[in-house]
Amino acid sequence: MRTLTFCLRRACRVMFLASVLATGSWLCSGHRAGAAEIASSGNAAAPEVVRCAAGDLEAAFRRSADGLQFEGLQDVRTRTTLAVKGAPLFSLLVRNVSSGEERTLTASEGWREARLRQSRGDLRLLWATPSEAALAGLTVQATATLAPRRSAIRWTLRVENRSPGWSVRRCFFPQLELADLGDNAAVLFPRGPGEVQRGVWRRDFHYRGNYPDGWCAMQFLAAYREGASPTGLYVGLHDPWGSTKHLEFKSAPASRTVRLAVETPAADLSQAGNDFTVSGEVVWQLLRGDWFDAARIYRTWAQKEARWWPPLTREGRKDTPLWMRELSTWVMTGGAPDECLPAVKAFREALGLPVGFHWYNWHQIPFDNDYPHYFPAKAGFAQGVAELQQAGVFVMPYINGRLWDSRDRGAEDFEFSRVALPAATKKEDGQPFLESYGSKETNGQPVSLAVMCPSTQLWRERVRNIVLRLQRDEGTRGVYIDQVAAAAPTLCMDVSHRHPLGGGHWWTEGYWDLLKAIRREMPADRMLTTECNGEPFIRWFDGYLTWHWQHDGQVPAFPAVYGGTIQMFGRAYRGGATKELALRMKAGQQLVFGEQIGWFDPGQAGEPQNREFLRKVIYTRWNYRRYFYAGEMARPPRFSGDLPQVKADWQWSGEWPVTTDAVLTGAWRLPFEKRTLLLFANVSDAAVKAPFHLDPQTYGLKARELHRTVSRDGRKSSEGSPASTALAEEIELPAQSVLTWELTPAR
Ligand SMILES: [Zn+2]
Question: Which domains does the chain possess?
Answer without folding.
Answer: 81-305 (2.70.98.60), 331-401+454-631 (3.20.20.80), 633-745 (2.60.40.1180)
